[in-house]
């Protein structure tokens, strides 16, 4: 009996929390720094609404990138990156750590984790992350979309006052309290829970298909984790893009002249379908795939390489 317990012990190793949090933070900062300009383009494409005569500010992802760079320069492509880099550490740390924790807890005594349990773990991770994601996305979207709104106002002979993320957060807290920072939390949860339900099981499945490292750890080789992150990230990103469009539009506080206001998720879906058709829900889809794929490819590579474990001098489990 004692021998049997000794054999089972390694399967239930202690869950190392700190290294996972650090890995999530490092991965988030690197990923966001690399892909933020594309994320800005995605936000502007999703928020622009087609006028009554079919007029629009941006015709494509490349057109948006060109016009934004021409009007606002290199640093204009990073508007809103400060708040994103500041909050991406807790956001990614919560997401990756929560998924790992729930997978750890849901693993059966014989070391197996059914696909249904993987989906539950992913969904719970997505639900936990919206505590940080919602205010981060709300503030980031205002900064990213400010250039588009200002350009539209300029064409109409008007001007828009520039507001920093700090000023906006202070204003929302003063007027609406802490709940002011959680505008669009329902749509954010819909996007992030669904994304995580798809992403994490798919990543684990693809990662298991590749060759293992020769150090005896049983982990996948570098390129396998990276490619699995790319494939799972881009697939999940496209699948939930309609939810992302709804979330982005609901969280946009300032609209350009003539753009519609939305009262909630169902109102946004109904009005978007009526005035722009079903293809509107895939605005910025390619952009989002290009953003999310490397973001999660980098994240999973950092996570699985155990960068934090090396920095802390602890053994990676």
UniProtKB/TrEMBL annotation:
Protein name according to UniProt: Mitochondrial glutamate carrier 2
**Database matches in PANTHER family:** AT03939P-RELATED, MITOCHONDRIAL 2-OXODICARBOXYLATE CARRIER 1-RELATED
Give the matching Gene3D superfamilies.
Mitochondrial carrier domain (1.50.40.10)
Function of the protein: Responsible for the transport of glutamate from the cytosol into the mitochondrial matrix with the concomitant import of a proton (symport system).
Q: Which reaction does it catalyse?
A: L-glutamate(in) + H(+)(in) = L-glutamate(out) + H(+)(out)
Q: Which InterPro entries match?
A: MCP, MCP_dom_sf, MCP_transmembrane, Mito_Solute_Carrier
GO biological process per UniProt: malate-aspartate shuttle
SUPFAM superfamilies for this protein: Mitochondrial carrier
Q: Which PROSITE patterns match?
A: SOLCAR (PS50920)
The similarity comment for this entry is: Belongs to the mitochondrial carrier (TC 2.A.29) family.
Cellular location(s): Mitochondrion inner membrane
Q: Give the stretches traversing the membrane.
A: 21-41, 181-200, 220-240
User: What is the membrane topology here?
Assistant: Multi-pass membrane protein
Task: State the Solcar repeat positions.
Answer: 15-105, 113-209, 220-309
């Amino acid at each position: 009996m004692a021998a049997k317990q000794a054999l089972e012990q390694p399967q239930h190793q202690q869950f190392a929390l700190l290294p996972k949090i650090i890995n999530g933070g490092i991965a988030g900062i690197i990923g966001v720094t690399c892909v933020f300009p594309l994320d800005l383009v995605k936000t502007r494409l999703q928020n622009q609404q087609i006028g009554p005569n079919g007029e629009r500010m941006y015709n494509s992802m490349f057109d948006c990138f060109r016009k934004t760079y021409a009007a606002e320069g290199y640093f204009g492509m990073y508007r809103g990156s400060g708040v994103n880099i500041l909050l991406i550490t807790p956001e990614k740390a919560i997401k990756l750590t929560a998924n790992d924790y729930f997978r750890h807890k849901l693993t059966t005594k014989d070391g197996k984790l059914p696909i249904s349990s993987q989906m539950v773990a992913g969904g719970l991770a997505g639900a936990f992350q919206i505590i940080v994601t919602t205010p981060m996305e709300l503030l980031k979207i205002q900064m990213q979309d400010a250039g588009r709104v200002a350009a539209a106002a300029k064409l109409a002979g008007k001007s828009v006052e520039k507001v920093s993320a700090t000023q906006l957060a202070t204003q929302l807290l003063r007027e609406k309290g802490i709940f002011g920072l959680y505008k669009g939390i329902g749509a954010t949860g819909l996007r992030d829970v669904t994304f995580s339900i798809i992403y994490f099981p798919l990543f684990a499945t693809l990662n298991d298909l590749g060759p293992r490292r020769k150090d005896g750890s049983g982990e996948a080789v570098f390129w396998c984790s990276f490619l699995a992150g790319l494939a799972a990230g881009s697939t999940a990103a496209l699948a939930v893009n309609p939810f992302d469009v709804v979330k982005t539009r609901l969280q946009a506080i300032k609209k350009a002249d003539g753009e519609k206001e939305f009262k909630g998720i169902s109102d946004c879906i109904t009005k978007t379908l009526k005035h722009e058709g079903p293809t509107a829900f895939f605005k910025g889809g390619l952009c989002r795939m290009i953003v999310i794929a490397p973001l999660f490819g980098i994240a999973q590579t950092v996570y699985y390489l155990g960068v934090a474990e090396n920095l802390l001098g602890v053994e990676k489990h």
